[in-house]
Fold this protein.
Amino acid sequence: MADPRLSGLSALVVDDSRVVITAMRKMLSDAGIPRIDSAANSAEAEELMRGARYDMLFLDWHMAGKSGVALMEQCREDRAYDGVAIVIVSGEAGKRFIDEALKGGATSYLVKPFKPEQLAEHLDKALRFLEQHGRFKPA
Amino acid sequence: MTPRNPHENRLLRQILDGMQGTMPPLLAESVLKTSETMFNQKMYAAQRPPDREPLAGWAAAVVFLNPSGRFLLRLTLDLPLLEKLVAGTYPKEAAFEDGVLEDAAGEMANIVGGMVKTAANKRGFDLARDLPVVAALPAGAPQQAGPLSLDFSIYQNTLAARNLLNVSLL
């Protein structure tokens, strides 16, 4: 069921798997996010980010070329991304990976595979982050 | 099968011994969970049906390594199974675009590989892994080429994983 709190937000999904992008786009759309873009790698994502501003980034950790974590760290060095929620998505569930991502600036860490209910929990964390940074006001 | 590299044997033996028989159910659980959550398809684990000619499909291999060696996890997915999986995810018109089946095989191996790595490292193995490499399999090709492999098939009109307990060493 769509969450009305997400109705004004935008998201960018970056993953080198088309099946993950397709699944995530559907889950995010069903959750209530109206504008969702996607990129197959970090270079494509950077190109999209030059032309648009997103509220949430979903970055696959392991991709050929620049990893999602490297892209996140690059974003975090840019003040323009201070208030953007970044969710690292990965098949790695080890504590070391989760800690590294969170330390590097991730808003949350989503382990693949995941169900829509699990994605919803991470959307909640992202909303709280956006609220803390003044980019989202709860009704 | 003749070992190609004694170090590969040793690491895989260490992993299987260290996981105390939990590797086959872990692989089964990983595949079933991935198929349900990412592909919207429920599968069940089944014993391998009687031998028959392997169908064409895709094989996705993940290399695991640590300082003491390396081994390969290879998932073999036949075309009918992959078509079912992507049908649960993609809109009809996009389900058979070029590269979709190959991508699905790679992502299945990627996620299952992540779960294997996490479980092994919880037991003290310092495993790293590479991104999956996917290759087409012609009909009739041997479905076990690696030291550790899983094969999948359509079984009695239901998605079924087969050879789930078929974990072999080089």
User: Anything to note?
Assistant: The longest helix of chain B spans residues 100-122. Chain B is about 35% helix and 25% strand. Residues 145-158, 162-170 of chain B have pLDDT under 50 and may be disordered. Chain B touches chain A through 26 residues (CB under 8 Å).
